[in-house]
Amino acid sequence: MWTLFCFFLLALQDHDKPAERAAPYYPTPQIVVDRMLKLGELKRGEKLYDLGSGDGRIVILGAQKYSAKATGVELDHALVVQSRARIAKLGLESGAKIIEGDLFKQDYSDADLVTVYLLPITNIKLSPVLEKMLKRGARVVCHDFEFTEWKAEKIETMEDSEGRSHTLFLYRR
């Protein structure tokens, strides 16, 4: 029922208007960020994309801890500036970058791992884009909101340091 309602809302949207935020900015706790990258089996040199990258914490950890080629896509200019400044301060420019733009208009065909913490309606709209674009074997890790049309390979529930519950979904294309 929820899926049908979301499809109805998508049908009402004007797809030619300027991009809107895919989700409100709500930082993922660092312990959850680390678990997302572990669940996604990120390896040295792999291509990581974080869609709706916020302050860049997933991109930074991917480049720092896993030596991945990490890219964030973020629409909010202030968050892009903040992320880029942190990346520069940490000296991670060779392994981490932030693209300022619409996450629906990027190329993810070289992605090994994609991470998302977006709203259910956004995931419904994003899933066919990723299905078409991702190479065989690419992984996707969702935080809290799943891709309802996909079958998760793994589902993990964890608590953060404040006792809040988080659910992670791993998909493999």
Keywords:
alpha/beta; globular; 173 residues; Rossmann fold; disordered N terminus; 5 helices; 7 strands; 7-stranded mixed sheet
Please give a structural write-up.
The protein has 173 residues and is an alpha/beta fold. It has one domain (28-172): Vaccinia Virus protein VP39 (Rossmann fold), CATH 3.40.50. Helix content is 34%, strand content 23%. It is built from five helices and seven strands. The protein has helices at residues 2-12, 30-39, 57-66, 77-89, 120-133; strands spanning 47-51, 69-74, 96-100, 113-116, 139-143, 154-159, 165-172. The chain has a seven-stranded mixed β-sheet with strand order 3-2-1-4-5-7-6, covered by helices on one side. Helix 2 (30-39) packs across helix 3 (57-66). The radius of gyration is 15 Å and the shape is globular. The two termini are 25 Å apart. Mean pLDDT is 89; it is low at 1-18.
CATH superfamily: Vaccinia Virus protein VP39
Low-confidence stretches: 1-18
Using the 3D structure, state the CATH architecture. 3-Layer(aba) Sandwich
Task: Please state the average pLDDT score.
Answer: 89
The CATH topology label is Rossmann fold
Q: What series of H and E elements makes up the topology? A: HHEHEHEEHEEE
Number of strands: 7
Find the structural class using helix and strand composition: alpha/beta
Q: Approximately how much beta-strand content do the residues carry?
A: 15-25%
Shape: globular
Terminus-to-terminus distance = 25 Å
The number of helical segments is 5
Radius of gyration: 15 Å
Question: How many structural domains can be distinguished in the coordinates?
Answer: 1
Reading off the top of the CATH hierarchy, the class is best stated as: Alpha Beta
Helix content: 25-40%
Largest sheet: 7 strands, mixed
Strand line-up across the major sheet: 3-2-1-4-5-7-6
